[in-house]
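#structure-requests
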Amino acid sequence: MAKAYWISAYRSISNPDALAAYAKIAGPAIQAAGGRFLARGVAAAVYENGIKERTTLIEFDSVEAAIAAHDSPGYQEALRALAGGADREIRIVEGA
């Protein structure tokens, strides 16, 4: 079974306090669901239409595990804490 990668690309952060509250809940919820943080922080370089903002890369054992992590009660609680404090996109992709 191919691994899966959850990529969060932030466009902007409007409420750093809400992002901090989100991160406090989201990190443990993602790890409890089997996620392994591979990279997180502001992009070192961007190209094309990229935005130099926070990006997170998380590895899971499968697409199903990544989706289950997103849909879990713990992660949904984290999303409520974020409450619109950031404009971002999350993609889950299957590894090669």
